């Protein structure tokens, strides 16, 4: 049983290492997109909150018709 678990662990580790080698650019792009999104959200939080609140109000009003 221990041997089966060890083989699965080693196999998963090898696959993760291969993915990291082959997709370094992709991973970096995801991190940059997340950071950029966070920066935009913090910069425009008040404006976005107002837009979302207005949208929810309008959708609720349309739904009650």
Task: Walk me through what this model shows.
The chain has one domain (2-63). The chain is built from three helices and no strands. With 65 residues, it is an all-alpha fold.
> What is the count of β-strands?
0
Low-confidence stretches: none
Strand portion, in percent? under 5%
Average predicted confidence as pLDDT: 81
The residue fraction in helices comes out at: over 70%
The ordered string of helix (H) and strand (E) elements is: HHH
Radius of gyration: 23 Å
Figure out the total of helices.
Answer: 3
Distance between the termini: 63 Å
Shape: elongated
Instruction: Provide the structure class.
Output: mainly alpha
Largest sheet: none
Protein name: Flp
Give me a quick take on this structure.
92% of the residues lie in helices and 0% in strands. By secondary structure, it is mainly alpha-helical.
Main features:
92% helix; mainly alpha
């Amino acid at each position: 049983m221990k041997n089966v678990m060890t083989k699965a662990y080693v196999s998963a580790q090898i696959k993760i290492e291969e993915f990291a080698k082959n997709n370094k650019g992709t991973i970096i792009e995801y991190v940059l997109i997340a950071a950029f999104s966070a920066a935009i959200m913090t910069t425009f939080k008040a404006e976005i909150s107002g837009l979302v609140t207005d949208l929810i109000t309008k959708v609720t009003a349309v739904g009650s018709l």
